[in-house]
Amino acid sequence: MKSKQFILILAITIIAVALSACAGGATQASSWPGLTVDEQYAYVAYNTQVYAVDLVNGTEKWRYPGEPDNNITFYSDPSLSEDGQLIVGGYDGVLYSLAADTGQMTGGNWPFSEAEGRYIASALVVEETIFAPAADDNLYALDLDSNLQWTFSSEGESWAQPVTDNECECLYLSSMEHTVYAIDPVSGSQIWQSPTLGGSVVGTPAVSEEGVLYVGTFGGKLFALDAKDGSILWEFTTEGWIWSGPALDDGVLYFGDLDGYFYAVDAQSGTQNWRLTPEQLDGEIVGSPLVLGQDIYVPSQDGNLYKLDTSGKIIWTQTIGGSLFTSPKSANNLILVAPVQTDELLVALNEDGVKQWSFIPAD
Amino acid sequence: MDIGAIWSTLILDPMINSLMWIYSGLAQNFGLAIIVFTVLVRVITYPLTASQMKSTQGMQEMQKSKKWQDIQKKYKGEKEKLAQEQMKLYKEMGVSPFGSCLPTIIQFPVIIGLYQAIIRALAVTPIQLLELTRHLYPFYSAALLIPLNQYFLWLDLSVPEKDYGIMIAGFAIPILAILVMGTTFLQSRLMTPPSTGGEQGANMGRAMTLYMPLFMGYLAYSFPSGLALYFVTSNLVGILQYGLLGKLDWRNLLPSRKSSNEKSKIKKKQT
């Protein structure tokens, strides 16, 4: 009898430890780093802190908060406003305005706490307005002093930064509930909702000057939607699910899928120009590619950054380590990548793929 | 193949995909999917439950037997010899001493796997969603199901009840945790025969009946509600299974109930 009870107590202990391990600590990462750049600094939001990193040498200028608080975590790309605010959403449901030059929340800076869900998506700042989608199914429009202008309620969460189209003056919001919304940015009223797209739209759509919206879905399709009414113009079928929005450059859409394929598709007709296979690019492609002129930089789950030309030829492969899920950014002739599952939070390469510096946050 | 991959292939992936497949057939209600899945798991593991029951009953009978009581008297103070004779008697009566523990232990991977499956299937963060995409089987259209509806009755199945429960004076009332504690207590009282292992055994039995519900209640309060829903359903199905076999002893709910063995000991003491 004693041995039976001992085994039972032991088993309870094991299950408690196992479940605790599964739950993980409060600081276990829920996503990958958010990354934004200006001419001088890269701003990286990851886990419990937001960092400003000098682009010249990769040194830390500031971090917020100074001491990590396990209840506040950041993963979305921070957004910069013209008046020097750095807007970053937290998983605690608070949108933070920090002074971009100091990282402090002083003077005109503020926290906005009305959302009831975490901020997974980045906020979009257009002139005097901040559009911030939260995981409570609401899109909040604020002025730069955090005064709420309107709230748009959708049928599901949005995990992607909204995008705007100056010509139409519409705001486009992708939804995890398999649809895209067009919203009047002044009143917050819905202009149209696309038909169901057969899968979640996780990434930010690309918008062409011709008034076409391009969205990738978990249904393994890239859709071209008419920006006037949301109707489907064409669709392109992929091998795997599409996480990020495509990059649109010179009439060609570049994007990858979770099976590791990378595509170049003609934006006008929806026909494939070329594609690379998982044998050529190893690993899931989650982040959007960075297109700079004739160069395409593709981040991959296998920890490699690939540089392609517009014909699909691989120019070089640079192993960063960890996994690359964040879309690369470019500033000051540097290509910046923010890996996960490695010590380095930010790595800067030149256009030949040679590492210039890396940033590892000091404890 | 590392242990993580083996775990995924044998336990986690089948669980995630079963849950999602059931979800797709049940009006996309994840709460109902957990309930149906739990019933299925209990039905599949029924042979283990039955074997556990048989072993427990066998051990009870052995401990009540005159032969065992004679052996205890004969080898009083000779621990090693007593243990040898006990093992002989187990063999003689066809009872496996581990038969009652083993099925319980085998169920633990199911609980841990289910916990992981619920968390992964509900995928409320990008890392979880990306992880989920790696576990899905290709034979059904999982893309149409994602994101799963995480709400059931008053519950948000992806979040611990302490984070959203009905708030009174700043404290979330843990209704589901109370249900888990209640059904765990009920199950252990109804299914555990009164101890025949003497005063020490009885004390330990009482402690387990008290601490087990508290422990399960703590888990239900702290972990996502989907897991707590599994606990409640599993407890109720367990009680029902024992009830159908006619093994429930409602008299165990009475606080002063003692085994016949203990009663006879008390009588002896009094005389």
Largest interface: A-B, 43 and 35 residues
Fraction of residues in β-strands of chain B: under 5%
Number of helical elements of chain A: 1
Distance between the termini of chain A: 50 Å
Biggest beta sheet summary of chain B? 2 strands, antiparallel
Counting DSSP E segments of at least 2 residues, the number of strands of chain A comes to 32
Q: Which sequence of strands runs across the widest sheet of chain A?
A: 1-2-3-4
Helix content of chain A: under 10%
Shape of chain B: elongated
Number of strands of chain B: 4
Number of helical elements of chain B = 12
Radius of gyration of chain B: 23 Å
Q: Residue share in helices of chain B?
A: 55-70%
How many structural units, i.e. domains of chain B?
2
On the 0-100 scale, what is the average pLDDT of chain B? 79
Poorly predicted sequence stretches spanning 5 or more consecutive residues of chain A: 21-26
* Strand content bin of chain A: 35-45%
Q: What are the segments of chain B in which pLDDT stays under 50 over at least 5 consecutive residues?
A: none
Structural class of chain B: mainly alpha
Sheet with the most strands: spatial strand order of chain B: 1-2
Shape of chain A: globular
Offer a few descriptive terms.
heterodimer; A: 363 residues; mainly beta; 1 helix; 32 strands; globular; B: 271 residues; mainly alpha; 2 domains; two-stranded antiparallel ribbon; 12 helices; 4 strands
